[in-house]
Amino acid sequence: MASRTPLGALKQSVQAPRLARAQSSTTTSSFFPTQSFSQPRQQLPPNSLWFTARPSLNATLQSLQTTLTASRAHLFKAGLLPSINSSLGVDAEFSSTLPHPRARRWMATKEMATYLRNGTDLKSSQYKKLTSVLSNLEGLLPYAELADQLPSPSSPSLVVDPVAASKGALEGQDAFRGDSVSLRAQLEDILARFQQPQAVSSTGIAVDRVVGKDRRLGKKDKEGRVMAVGRRKESGARVWIIPAQGAADAAEQIPGRVLVNSKPLPTYFPLHTHSAAAIQALTLTSSLGSFNVFAIVKGGGIAAQADAVAMGVARALVEWERCEVEAGRIEEATETWRDLLKKAKLIERDPRMVERKKTGQLKARKKFTWVKR
């Protein structure tokens, strides 16, 4: 025991400076408060599609698909649809009594991408997929109006602002839902957000957009000339037509002429393929020689200019027939020139600008270099 006493005293003498340094460190550290390293709360993405290539577009499409399914399920429970996935076309159950409008004009591709805050332009396939869902929702409007009048269960509460809901937080999705009183009112609210805004004239007056057969394709002046515009690729043509002045005797009647940039048609378009394409509308309507045609065409190549002139002539003929029918000088036929030329694809502009690349080739026409070995 006596031998352990000096060893215990030695341990105490060694530990005493350590305790003093520890106490001094605690007293000095009290003057310098320690910095808190509490990490901020990590913000969660608004939806599960946040990490996709186009989160806003995908979330909006998902919301619209959910809205379409919920609306069809409600109409099915009300007894208005034979099934949830039933067709709403001409073979629908109430197609003879309920109208199917589907005549709204949606935003253009660039306007739609800006509204969706997509960051990039929409592809044609993406725009077509989005507008097809909107058209299906529009086809439900007459059924929804009838369902609101029936003593059916309350309509579902739909997300009336899918774009804002795709940007909002997950816990705040209920703020973007509409009132479950009227299904038609909710669908109208959804469709109005994607609809093209109303046109405004130069004087600031709202003008209704004319679509379908009521849309005018040309303009008639006081002299009886009808002017229309045609385009193809980089070419643009302005075309004027006027009926040829017929003589009293049919044998002395002078046939109408076709001038392109103040030159006869065979002179400006030496190839028969181009000249025949330019007057294709006159040939289809059996009015070749009945009109004097004057065209001014610029830009592009010869083939594109011929197609631009053909489109301008077709639109001018359609507008001339419409003016004559409205004036009562001719009777409206069962198949109008508009229907005939629309089947020939001469009324609407061809959106193709360049020839597509072919598989197994370097470009549209260029082939890979042939290597013997």
UniProtKB/TrEMBL annotation:
GO terms for biological process: translation. GO terms for cellular component: mitochondrial small ribosomal subunit. Residues 23-40 have a biased composition (Low complexity). It comes from the Eukaryota. One of its GO terms (molecular function) is structural constituent of ribosome. Residues 1-46 are annotated as: Disordered. Gene3D superfamilies: 3.30.230.10. Keywords: Ribonucleoprotein, Ribosomal protein. Belongs to the universal ribosomal protein uS9 family. This is Small ribosomal subunit protein uS9m. It comes from Leucosporidium creatinivorum.
